[in-house]
Design brief:
This protein is mainly alpha-helical. About 45% of the residues lie in helices and about 5% in strands. It contains 23 helices and 5 strands. The protein binds flavin-adenine dinucleotide. This is FAD-binding domain-containing protein.
Amino acid sequence: MTTSGLHIVWFKRDLRSADHAPLLAAVAAAREAGRGVLPLYILEPDLWRRCDMSGRQWGFVRESLADLRRDLAARGQPLVLRAGPVVNVLAAIHRAQGIAGLWSHRETGTAWSWGRDAAVAAWARDRGIPWIETGHDGVLRGAADGAGWVARWSRNMASAPAPSPAAIPPATGIEPGPIPETLDRLIGRVPDICPGRQSGGRRAGEAAMQRFFDRRLLRYRRGMASPVTAGDACSRLSPHLAWGTLSTREVMAAAVRRRDELRDLPPAITGDRLKAIDAFIDRLRWRGRMIQGLEARPDSPHVTLDPAFEALRGAEAGLRGADTAGYLDAWSRGETGWPMVDACMRALARDGWLSFRMRAMLMAVASYHLWLDFRPTGTVLARCFVDYEPGIHWAQAQMQAGTTGSHAFRMVNPVRQSEVQDPDGGFIRAMLPALARLPAPFIHAPWTAPPSVLAEAGITLGRDYPAPIADPLAAARAARDRLSRALHGAGGTTDTSITENPDLIPATAPGTRKPRPQPEPNPTKLSPAKASPAKPATRRRKTDPRQLGFDF
Ligand SMILES: Cc1cc2nc3c(=O)[nH]c(=O)nc-3n(C[C@H](O)[C@H](O)[C@H](O)COP(=O)(O)OP(=O)(O)OC[C@H]3O[C@@H](n4cnc5c(N)ncnc54)[C@H](O)[C@@H]3O)c2cc1C
């Protein structure tokens, strides 16, 4: 390492000073060499122009950068922001001040970030500038998600989070640079209004963590699925983990601390909270595992994990063109005429967040009932999610679309989900005011309401609220038949077996059965298959359509 020049800490999805190994290492190296540290965020227009990135994500990042700037300034050197391609920004700094070392977390991203990192690595190598990358979230470069992964991850997560550096040797003579309010001008986007978005920044992350462990734990397991309860039952830590205002290790350490405290209390006092912590820790592990999966398959936003599904949707005869585009548009805008789907889309537009169960439903309905390809639908959801994390997102998008090679028949009944997760229809009414006066048994499927009920509620379908885009039962049957044909040959199959998916609930006519809350599925059982041919489902049932989970 040269002794002249600055030590640059390149912040990306790690917008914090605590538990930040590259920052600590850079501070130590700079101190030894008597040089300054330059904490740098590079606003990359090419990244933010990508169709999976959005203004709402920038809103969260902007607040996180402002918080980080304050934090670092108090330690001696504020965060510096520069806009442009990374190599150009680094080259300008190198020309002006010299760069002694580049320090960063390793990014597990899409093919785009791999390409960007390759260019940065080549640039640094050519100039003899060492780029020291550190792992993140227990994810290892080049390691397979196989035997021993959990033990390795658990060991990594069990180590104590490192504190923030007490003082940072400053890089003198460098303007911090403004943090733009929006990216609209820079990248030519329309404003992305998301009034219910969570606030960014370390302090907001710490407050969310505190709220979760103090108050939300009790509601976590029972309330995590329904859109009525999930917003106040889940941890809501996802954007903080995605943009790194909190590290997974810090959250894990807090969870373990809380578990130890609760273990000292009598069961009558702890209630469900110990189980809730275990369920939460499971999810942190799934998180690591899925990001590890993206290390192995950075192409997963672009190709189906099982090649057998590559040309199945969209390309099929008769589904290209206006019809497919119409479905995508209606689904994206929350105008399918299927209330739970539309309400979730509206909630997502407003808040930038949804529970796991509702995300899974949106993706599954798009992939089966509407027969849409996972790439455009996954992209629409990605940019709606403030917590967009490519490793989790594309693995989940492909799982729910059934393109991983396991669980190809992953249908979810949007009407049944509505009955179970929003039995009184309160969430739907809040999101779809046009349906506000429709009584509960019919709010889940307004097209089944007698004309007199619709008239009394002041609704004309197709005018006040969309008529259903398709009959859900017919659409699900068509999807099942297409899949059967594709998987079992042109003659199709009468095999209507389904997989072990708690979403596949025997259904009845709207409002005639008391809904039961369903347990959350365990994604570790659903991990992407190694490009194996899709297998017929394992559990067989009778062909009564009510047992297929998509009928009424
Ligand atoms: C189609 C689809 C797309 C998704 N895209 C994303 C995404 O881009 N970013 C994202 O963070 N999550 C994604 N998820 C997973 C999950 O829905 C969210 O993590 C969760 O809803 C976030 O809320 P929370 O932080 O309150 O979750 P909690 O239940 O409190 O979980 C705590 C943390 O564990 C992780 N986690 C939770 N569920 C999962 C899971 N099933 N798989 C992997 N990790 C999990 C997240 O980091 C989360 O913040 C997606 C799920 C689906 C079905």
